[in-house]
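Morning F.,

Quick status update on the modeling queue. The single chain you submitted on Monday has been processed. Sequence for confirmation:
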Amino acid sequence: MSTPIKSSYVDGAFVAHHTSVDLLENRNPSSPDEVIERFVRADQALTEQAIAAARRAAPGWARVNAQQRADSLDFIGTEILARREELAQLLSREEGKILREALGEVDRAGRSFKFYAQEVLRADGEKYPSVRQDVSIDVFTQPVGVIGIIAPWNFPIAIPAWKIAPALCFGNCVVFKPAERVPSSAWALAEIISRAGLPAGVFNLLIGPGRSVGDTLIRSRDIDAISFTGSEHTGRQIAKIAAENMTRVQLEMGGKNPLVVLDDADLEQAVDVALNGSFYSTGQRCTASSRVIVTAGIHDAFVQRLAERTRALKVGDALAADTDIGPVVDARQLEQNLGYVSIGQQEGATRVCGGEPVDSPSGAFLFTPALFTDVRPDMRIYREEIFGPVLCVLKVDDYEQALAAAEDTPFGLSAGIVTTSLRHAEHFKRHSSAGMVMINLPTAGVDYHVPFGGNGASSLGAREQGTHARHFFTRVKTAYQLA
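Structure tokens below.
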């Protein structure tokens, strides 16, 4: 059986292609010899065609009535949810996320579209009296125009959904570039969107490399706004180019998120929260708690119990029912994880358990979750985002030291605390500089209907998700009228 060859979606149609062109192979990290699908890589010329199509479609889509937009978004969300099992299987095969996590991600994607189907119809606008006689003032929002969306590989359908859905909801056109590591989920989403009744050019998918597709998108003066999730390095480059073009940006760039565990914490709850936040989704989450800051009174018992639970985690095929931790996304990520384990040991940290490759008959990119203690705040494994299941435990004396350690980072995405003290919980909630704070919950669990985003080096621009997405995807207009 031949492997399917698929292509980008531009101006209302999937692009015709020939087998002789540049092809991208999408491989299964649980079984790297398996080619899931092949894709014709988009280039600069096709990217320019997609941008032009979106620009042509923008005026008409901005004027489309709210019910039509709502119906299209509801159609997309309904089909995603109806095909939840199928799409989750595909996601697990291409990204390595275990099936139960993939099911949750697909569900979130569908519900994001459903949420914005309703948001289309919510009242918007304000009316003010003027300080001048017989003058009235209306304040309302309008679409930004053409939105370039660049999504990462770690959430192949949820992150695209929570960017695309509000962009379309508020009357914008979209040019979407997924990560090359995970094209299949993006293509499946695009195929659903292609049947949602959108006019040609309103939504476009480009599967191709950053050096041509991504670069063309961020440099184009016909792109009105860029919504990007990815590395801090790339985000900073986008910000510089966007500033030259006066392009609006929304950047989500990662984190080195702290989880504070206080002496009064429930031990099993603290271990559960740390395991989930640090190791689930193979640690490949920008909200993962890779720094666990533990006060002295509970430190030893916490480390002992966490090590026991970590060793018990089953690492294996993403689709196997008994797998707790799937493979990392590819060989490059596995090499990076192993490199940081070596760095941590060279720096003097103690590797309590994990941090090793796992032999697999299929050649899967398996890596056992790593737990480090005797960590100092100046160590690279403590300061740098690894984007893998590598957890560092820092021992401190008390809550004040724990809060100071949690704040000792240029990032500010998510932060958590495990405590039974209402006073400490409330103080941490108010004094953490992270954009999202979790009390007795993993740092990585977020809902689709409320704002998502951080501060510092983690984020730039308006928040994603929920009603706050309106701030990025619309422009405010103030209109004065003589009565």
